[in-house]
Design brief:
CATH architecture of one domain in chain B: 3-Layer(aba) Sandwich
Shape of chain A: globular
Number of helices of chain A: 13
Oligomer: heterodimer
Distance between the termini of chain A: 28 Å
Strand order of the largest sheet of chain B: 1-10-7-4-2-3
Structural class of chain A: alpha/beta
Helix content of chain B: 40-55%
Order of helices and strands of chain A: EHHEHHEHHEHEHHEHHEHEH
Radius of gyration of chain B: 26 Å
Number of domains of chain A: 2
Strand order of the largest sheet of chain A: 2-1-3-4
Number of strands of chain B: 10
Strand content of chain A: 5-15%
Largest sheet of chain A: 4 strands, parallel
CATH class of the largest domain in chain A: Alpha Beta
Low-confidence stretches of chain A: none
CATH architecture of the largest domain in chain A: 3-Layer(aba) Sandwich
Number of helices of chain B: 21
Chain lengths: 245, 461
């Protein structure tokens, strides 16, 4: 199985450990993983700011980098969703369509494609799971609380395979953290308040780590935790699933 | 409203956030309503089917609106009502003023109608010497406070009971410092009872207008629409033209959804049907367009007209809960308001589609399945294309798009960024950086993943 690793730009630059964990985890599970080296960004920062018309350069670069793989796997629900919903190319729409079908967020890939039900991983801590909205309501990697429908959570299902890990319950299991891309600076006051309230929920329930399938949310929550000099840390779900002591 | 006229959502939200305990109180109050909605919805196994059915009925209405409106008009006339058509807010206000002045009426009681807020009817009539009293308790409170409603279902949700006590003390003569909700409500009841008994004209909104029968339905918890309409000589019902449903049998779908979504109640206390005027009295229906036919023509945004004004999207919206309804500076606040308002004035409301994280909760609580967060995204594109964004932002976005389209430029910029973080943190950790105000910047690692991967590949050879 030929898998291309799609590493979001900010993960590449600021959180390489999460990308390394994703790569190692996929290799451990038997995938032949390639990292197309000329990848940059999915284009979401421009598109969500109202400048989708400026993303054609990113789109063609993405298609150049990610054509010809069985699957494209990304440790971010948000960037995956952007590709799934917005990757288009005037001169290469067939390939764009193909890529939109083959791109997967990491936890959905592990559950739906690799069908992982045992995992050699240990993480002896109390962990709060932050559901990123794009993974949750966009990709539906978990069931959202708004719907009257059976509950499930692909990231939680995987985390429950990890030895020693205890998932803590939360008062508001899927309230948005307030990152929101450029929202986090344009609407700084509301964004920070939303982040503070999410962090408080995890801390009140005794979490030692906050994890998520999206580092953009975690980057925002980490900024708040570090400003509070909190001992609680953020960690990408791939780093937990790849953790064997 | 003058103080808010020049400020955008972000600025108004920042002002609201200066009082953090108040933000917490506001957030928790609305979350409590959202939680009540969840409990009510969970009790109905057919909830998602109901939403889908309501959505499809409304899609049918929007696709056949002109014929349903004509059918409704014909049946309403048969029932003895008088139907007026208003192309815009100005015409709506003039029609109502004319109806009142022709009859020498200068005092009117009005139950909740967001349409009249949208049309600024109260101000229009006040300037012409007509006194309007809002009879919905929440609306009466904000009216006495000289404020617009901050929520379409819970107009005074931003006010604490102590503040309401002060307002009632000043205007209705309740005891100073009295904040017991029971006593305050009784004070309002006595005050409004006198109003109901003495007003010759009553204005109400319309929740549902049934094409098949020409009747209309008004939902209230206080019975105030009924009190006003039954006692007055003339009942004026203002309705947005999208309020149509085809047949009476469809009503059950909407009544089951409306209040469960709004407040978690199984049904409104009063769901009143109005068809024929009482002997010697008049019923007038004013059907208002005010931009709705333009919205109907916008393919990406037309289904915003499915809205039944339950307010569930506001209660669930974390941005609404933490910024308050007034920060949206429009009659209908929150997510639904942010996709309706740019249709009325794109320049004035250019900020609203950006007052969202696109979390998608709104679209999924919506009882008629409006794709609210997708429309917010689409409005952003329209607003940028129309040129209503700051030039600096456009320049920054062009630079970003140019850099990210080139792997070499991207690597250089990434490296430079990380070096800046590491060796010149003061360049980013300062007051000019909005991120840094309440959050630390991420720590810059020694190498990017791309650099690490290239080295690993080298070692593996």
């Amino acid at each position: 199985m030929k898998v291309a690793l799609f590493v979001p730009c900010y993960v590449d630059q600021f959180y390489p450990k999460a990308a390394i964990a994703t790569l190692e985890l996929l290799e451990k599970l038997g995938c032949e993983v390639h990292y197309p080296k000329n990848q940059t960004c999915c284009g979401q920062p421009m598109a969500n700011s109202g400048y989708e018309h400026l993303t054609s350069g990113c789109n063609s670069l993405f298609i150049d980098n990610f054509s010809g793989y069985d699957y494209i796997v990304c440790p971010s629900g948000s960037c995956t969703l952007h590709i799934k919903e917005h990757l288009h190319a005037h001169d290469n729409e067939d390939m764009a369509t193909e890529i939109r079908k083959r791109v997967f967020e990491l936890t959905e890939f592990l559950v739906d494609i690799l069908k992982i039900d045992i995992l050699d991983a240990t993480f002896p801590y109390r962990v709060g799971l932050h559901q990123s909205c794009h993974g949750l309501r966009g990709l539906r990697i978990s069931q959202m609380s708004e719907l009257v429908a059976p509950a499930f959570s692909k990231p939680a299902q995987l985390l429950n395979l990890v030895r020693g890990l205890e998932l803590v319950p939360l008062s508001r299991a899927d309230d948005c953290c307030g990152f929101g891309g450029t929202f986090c600076v344009v609407e700084e006051a509301v964004s920070s308040k939303m982040g503070k309230d999410r962090v408080d929920d995890h801390i009140e329930h005794g979490a030692q780590y906050i994890t998520s399938a999206d580092l953009s949310c975690l980057m925002h929550l980490e900024g708040i935790l570090r400003r509070q000099n909190s001992d609680v840390k953020v960690i990408h779900v791939a780093e937990i699933l790849n953790n064997s002591i | 409203m003058s103080s808010t006229a020049t400020k955008d959502h972000a600025e108004l939200a920042a002002i609201f956030n200066r009082d953090e305990p108040r933000v917490d109180w506001h957030d928790e109050t609305l979350w409590w309503v959202r939680a009540k909605r969840d409990i009510a919805a969970q009790k109905l196994p057919e909830w998602e089917l109901l939403r889908e059915t309501a959505s499809q009925i409304k899609n049918n209405v929007l696709s056949n609106l002109s014929s349903y409106l004509e059918q409704f008009e014909a049946n309403a006339i048969k029932n003895g009502a008088i139907v007026h058509w208003a192309a815009n807010a100005e015409e709506h206000n003039q029609i109502i003023h004319k109806l009142l002045s022709e009859r020498g009426i200068n005092r009117m009681v009005k139950s909740k109608s967001m349409l009249t807020e949208e049309c600024h009817l109260n101000e229009f009539l006040a300037q012409r010497g007509v006194d309007v009293i809002d009879s919905d308790l929440g609306e009466r409170i904000v009216q006495l406070a000289g404020e617009p409603p901050s929520h379409i279902v819970l107009p005074c949700i931003h006010k604490k009971k102590e503040e309401i006590g002060d307002i009632f003390h000043e205007h209705l003569g309740s005891a100073k410092g009295e904040s017991d909700p029971k006593i305050l409500t009784e004070t309002a009841r006595q005050h409004l009872r006198e109003v109901f008994l003495t007003r010759r004209a009553a204005l109400t909104g319309v929740n549902f207008a049934i094409a098949e029968t020409g009747e209309f339905v008004i939902c209230t918890n206080e019975g105030n629409a009924d009190m006003g309409a039954h006692l007055a000589e003339i009942h004026i019902a203002s309705m947005g033209m999208e309020k149509i449903i085809p047949e009476r049998k469809h009503l059950g779908v909407f009544l089951r959804l409306l209040t469960r979504s709004a407040t978690g109640q199984p049904i409104t206390t009063y769901s009143s049907h109005f068809a024929k005027p009482q002997d010697g009295k008049e019923v007038h229906i004013v059907i208002v367009d005010n931009g709705r036919s333009i919205q109907l023509g916008r393919e990406d945004f037309r289904n915003s007209l499915k809205c039944i004004r339950c307010g569930a999207c506001m209660n669930t919206c974390p941005v609404y809960r933490k910024s308050g309804g007034h920060s949206y500076h429009t009659a209908v606040a929150g997510p639904i308001g942010s996709i309706l308002a740019p249709n009325l004035d794109m320049k004035k409301y250019a900020d609203l589609p950006f007052a969202s994280t696109l979390c998608g909760s709104c679209s999924n609580v919506c009882p008629v399945k409006i794709d609210i967060h997708d429309q917010l995204y689409k409005w952003r594109q329209v607003i940028v294309q129309a040129g209503y964004t700051p030039t600096a932002k456009t320049i920054a976005m062009k630079g970003m798009a140019f850099t990210l389209a080139s792997p070499a430029l991207y690597r250089a910029a990434g490296k430079m960024g990380r070096l800046t973080f590491k060796y010149a943190p003061f360049a980013v950790n300062n007051g000019a950086n909005p991120w840094y105000k309440h959050r630390e910047m991420p720590k810059a690692p020694e190498q990017s993943f791309g650099e690490w991967y290239a080295k690993r590949k080298e070692q593996k050879k």
